[in-house]
Q: What sequence folds into this?
């Protein structure tokens, strides 16, 4: 086996174990030693990743990229909506979904900026889907598509802050991700159509 292929397989094995560890225990509870207990040599981990932060970021990057790719493929192959494809991803990619929820909603403070950059594949997908949504509606006079995108980002950030603050004790992952998605749709609906009926 060529060295490049061996390195690729090693990194893949480390990332799979890392996603399982951080998906189950989160960044704060995840441990390099626990990953080593799955049969991976600690020296190999530190040869490829400087520290726990570097490995966590690699797991986040892979989870985000896999999520964007899987959702796009399902929409193209099955013709399902973006929301349906997201729901299916969370049902079939449990650990990646857990990493997404932590990294998107409550990322480790010291890694927040790096995680924001890693969200590029998901952000690009979200922007494309939002553009399709806007194309089905008429924007108010004076509102540009760029303004709408900026507003949507501000709303999502506000939603995540609120979601984080309103965390529920003893809520399992399925309940949490279902609440995140359903409440998120409500926020998007309010963002698009407002919260009060306009009187003439």
A:
């Amino acid at each position: 086996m060529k060295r490049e292929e061996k390195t690729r397989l090693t990194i893949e094995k480390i990332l799979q174990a890392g996603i399982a560890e951080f998906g189950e225990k989160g960044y704060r509870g995840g441990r390099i030693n626990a990953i080593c207990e799955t049969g991976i040599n600690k020296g190999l981990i530190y040869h490829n990743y400087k520290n726990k932060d570097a490995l966590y970021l690699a797991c986040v990057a892979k989870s985000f990229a896999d999520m964007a790719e899987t959702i796009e493929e399902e929409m193209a192959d099955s013709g399902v909506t973006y929301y349906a494809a997201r729901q299916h991803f969370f049902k079939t990619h449990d650990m990646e979904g857990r990493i997404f929820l932590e990294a998107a909603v409550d990322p480790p403070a010291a890694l927040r900026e790096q995680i924001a950059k890693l969200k590029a594949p998901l952000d690009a997908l979200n922007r494309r889907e939002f553009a399709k949504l806007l194309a089905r509606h008429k924007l108010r006079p004076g509102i540009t598509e760029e303004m709408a995108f900026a507003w949507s980002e501000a709303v999502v950030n506000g939603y995540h802050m609120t979601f984080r603050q309103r965390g529920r004790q003893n809520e399992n992952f399925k309940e949490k991700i279902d609440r995140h998605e359903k409440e998120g749709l409500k926020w998007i609906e309010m963002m698009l159509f407002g919260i009060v009926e306009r009187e003439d």
Notes: The longest helix spans residues 3-29.
